Amino acid sequence: MRHYELVFVLKPTMTEEEMASKLEQIQNLITSNGGEIYNLDKWGRRELAYPIQKFNTGYYFILNFKTENSELPGKLEYNLRLDEDVIRFLNFKIKPPKKEEEKKEEAAETAGNGE
After folding, report:
1. CB 58 within 8 A of CB 48
2. Hey, which residues does 5 pair with through a beta bridge?
3. Per-residue CA distances from 115 to 95, 102, 105, 106 (Å)
4. What is the pLDDT along the chain (115 residues), one digit of tens a residue?
5. Kind and range of the H or E run holding 27
6. 19 to each of 42, 47, 81, how far by Cα in Å?
7. Are 72 and 33 in contact (CB under 8 A)?
8. DSSP letters of 57-108?
9. How much is the pTM?
């Protein structure tokens, strides 16, 4: 199971309904391709470090997901690149959270004790 973190910035001209719809669309893309979302942080409207497409602010989101599908990150990045409402994104592989590692260790210990 691979874990990923997706950070993306939406245009500041979007309404709340449009942002909710875009977020739902991104989440559906991940879940329909074998991904499981386990964390979503909405940072809200923030100042950009430099102007992007003549925008000085944007709505930031951080989404953590895990998947067995090795094609999902490429498909996700392709769709985000084509989406005009997403002004920047970054998707990268991360280490599993501590909770996941502890579960694996416990599973390995119980499997070893069963023999």
Report:
1. yes
2. 64, 92
3. 30, 21, 16, 15
4. 999 999 999 999 999 999 999 999 999 999 999 999 999 999 999 999 999 999 999 999 999 999 999 999 999 999 999 999 999 999 999 998 887 555 555 565 555 555 4
5. helix 16-32
6. 11, 17, 17
7. yes
8. EEEEEEEEEEES-TTHHHHHHHHHHH-TTEEEEEEEEEPPPHHHHHHHHHHH
9. 0.81
Q: What tokens does 73 get? A: 């990150």
Structure-block tokens of residue 71 = 């094609």
d(CA 68, CA 14): 33
Structure token pair of residue 70: 């090795």
